[in-house]
Amino acid sequence: MIMSDRIMRTKIVFFLLPKLHLLDLAGPAQAFSTANDLGYGYDLHYVAEVDEIVTAQGVPIRASRDWPELRPADLIVVPGWRSPRLSPRTPIAAAGKQRLRAHHAAGGSVASVCSGADALGAAGLLDGRKYTTHHDLTDELAARYPKANIVRDVLYVVDDRVITSAGIASGIDLALHLIAVERGAEAAARVAREMVVYARRNGDELQESAMLRHRGHLSDLAHRVQDVIDSRYAEQLRLSDLASGAGVSERTLTRIFTTATGLTPLRYQQLLRLERAEHLIGHGATVESAARAVGFEDARMLRRLRARPLAG
After folding, report:
1. What is the pTM of this model?
2. Taking all residues of the chain, what is their mean pLDDT, rounded to a whole number?
3. What is the C-alpha end-to-end distance of the chain, expressed in Å?
4. S-S: 164 plus which of 33, 131, 205, 308, CB 3.0-4.6 Å?
5. How far apart are the C-alpha atoms of 199 and 189, rounded to whole Å?
6. Least confident residue range of 14-23, 40-49, 197-206
7. For the chain, which domains are there?
8. 98: buried, middle or exposed (CB in 10 Å: 19+, 13-18, 0-12)?
């Protein structure tokens, strides 16, 4: 699903705070940058409350104080800063907190990596929601934000357009999830391959994307068939054609695919369709239009799948 020049690109704004961890920033920035290089339409921006941020690793980073104009489809990401202990006061000014609140109130998404969750908490965005953070910080953040619901030992959590991740390399996991939801499973798979990362998820909310969730196996044949389904999930794919393309019988394909992923090829395709349809519905599409967009002839099948989600 390569983006057309006529489609408005998604802005990803990294809000940089003092002593941020390089990988908390570099991981998701690389994922979104790679997605943009592959034609999936992302514009990256780096803003801060000062002109220069010195990272926890001692590398200075120049940033802009001027925020770009944001739409609801855009994302603000707050990378984490030095841990394992939180600072007594969250290093974010009142104006920064208001930026986060206003963007979310306007329908936008906000995300954090590691201790970046502290900034979301200070802005009041964690209250009443589930979230996660680095395991060294869970007790401190749980005490600091008692109205929020900490989820321990998971890679990331999504709750009402507030997306939090565990920290360090899990920022890549978070970015791949968002790319899969917004641009499709094929896009996330291509980015993961370009970055030479192992696309495997675990934890709360099934860690969302079916493509990523069912890629943690070593079957080359299953991966090749998943590549086909990922790129053509909205089409009518016959098992016989998938098997022929893989050079095996239908029975062999079903056995190997199910052993590797836990799903039959058809159930895997349906799960991709369901997740993409849920994303479209969450952004204002009707059930009928979402069903057509993901390849269902009418909305009845989508309604059945939404009522009884597939296992996986």
Report:
1. 0.69
2. 88
3. 24
4. 131
5. 8
6. 197-206
7. 10-183 (3.40.50.880), 217-307 (1.10.10.60)
8. exposed
